[in-house]
Design brief:
single chain, 148 residues, mainly alpha, 6 helices, 3 strands, Protein kinase domain-containing protein
Length: 148
């Protein structure tokens, strides 16, 4: 209640590998592509599109900082957004770029930057003491290269 539900077509007897949105508690479904591109004269459609965008922003904000409890709640317990739906949103060339960017943020925040997944480029080790490279002392003494 109070949340727009998204679902893949194959799960609701619609076109497979397409995302659908319901804003009436799963009574009716609208393809995401149509939902996010309402006519400018359709004020209700524009408001619903803004609500969905804000809902996606909320999901991103709640999961910021690897908040595992919120990530589990959104993706598993309540199934508000699954990996498949997020990937379909990211890869759909029919969606506006702004929504594809939102889905990119969601993929990163809810499925990539989670748990022990840390970037290998955040703390690179770029300098080594030549004498230790390839020796058994390499791992232990490589940190002393930072002093040079």
């Amino acid at each position: 209640r109070g949340v727009y539900v998204t679902e893949r077509g194959q799960n609701i007897d619609k076109k497979p590998n397409e995302t659908y949105v319901s804003c009436d508690q799963m009574k009716s479904w609208i393809p995401l592509v149509e939902f996010v591109q309402p006519d400018e004269s359709d004020t209700e459609g524009m408001e619903r599109c803004l609500f969905l965008r804000t809902q996606l922003d909320l999901f991103i904000s709640l999961c910021h900082g690897r908040n595992e409890e919120c990530i589990r709640l959104i993706t598993k317990d309540l199934s508000y957004l699954t990996w498949e739906e997020a990937y379909l949103g990211l890869s759909s060339e029919s969606l506006p770029h702004s929504f594809r960017a939102k889905y990119c943020e969601i993929v990163i925040g809810l499925f990539v930057n989670v748990g022990n997944n840390y970037s290998v480029v955040e703390n690179p080790q770029l300098s080594f003491i030549y004498e230790y490279v390839g020796s058994k002392d390499f791992g232990q003494n490589a940190s002393s290269a930072e002093h040079y």
